[in-house]
Amino acid sequence: MNIVVDVVRHALPLVPLYFFNGSLLGYMLLTTFDLSMGLVLIFNTTRGPVDVTARGRVEMTKVDPRSRWLISRVVAVLVGAAIFAVEAAMVSVPIVVPAFVFGMVTGVDASMVTSQLDFRILVAAMSLIAAARFQGWFESGTTPGGRGAPAREGLSIDECVQDRKRSLAANAAQVTLIATFMVLCYLLITFGRSGLYALPFLYSALLVFYDVRPDIAQRIFPALWRKT
After folding, report:
1. Is 61 strand, coil or helix?
2. CA-CA distance, 116 to 112, in Å (whole number)?
3. Which of 199, 13, 3 is nearest to 119 (CA)?
């Protein structure tokens, strides 16, 4: 299910480009937001700091049963989407530089692109998808308990180590994707619309492929992966 959700999120930047005569700059900005959202998800799905007294990390295990109500889930996704959108916008600042360079080279104003309704709808959709994915991750690791404060338990040292490995591996894969995106931006800036119908689609396919086979990134950026 997570793969399907990721595929939809990665495909959204292609929708205006291929079906509604959108701009290449719009695609680059949306893809930047998508990559930033990936980093936000990695950060928010990495469990909390180590508690020495618990000989591991302390993690929420049982939650108020009202959190499983439909209205509670909807509110959680809506609030989470707003928070994730702000976080992704902040993370995207260094990643978005090539898109702004492309805008200056082609004479397209980025502020005009971001002010369009369809652009904002797609940003909202990606934020909602990411929040829904996080909500699913949260519910998979918790169970309904009694009403009141959530119960917390310490994770074992082995669980902490495995969680850190997963987080570092996911981060390394995301860095690989961002580096590849920089190459894509260079090609688009250099060759312009000649690569319009091939490169964006191929890059989105690459995003999906890395979600399915993150081990491939180990052969591209081995130094990052050795940290795991």
Report:
1. strand
2. 7
3. 13
Name the residue among 1, 3, 9 with its Cα closest to residue 204. 9
What does the pLDDT look like over 50-82, one tens digit per residue? 444 444 444 556 677 777 888 989 999 999 999
- Number of compact structural domains in the chain: 1
Enter the tokens of residue 156. 């074992």
Q: What is d(CA 120, CA 213) in angstroms, rounded to the nearest whole number? A: 31
Residues 206, 192: Cα–Cα separation, whole Å: 20
Angle at 41 between CA 36 and CA 45, to 5 degrees: 155
- Residue 154 dihedral angles phi and psi, to the nearest 5°: -80, 135
Identify the domain containing residue 24 by its residue range.
2-225
**Separation between Cα atoms, residue 32 and residue 96, nearest integer Å:** 6
Q: What is the pLDDT of residues 65-124, one digit of tens each?
A: 777 888 989 999 999 999 999 999 999 888 888 888 877 777 777 788 888 888 899 999
**Dist. CA 113–CA 35, nearest whole Å:** 18
